[in-house]
Amino acid sequence: MLVLTRKLNEKIVIASDIVVTVVNIDGDQVRIGIDAPRDISIHRQEIFDEIVRSNRAALLESGSRNDVLLGLLKRNREQ
Question: What are the extents of the domains in the chain?
Answer without folding.
Answer: 1-38, 43-79
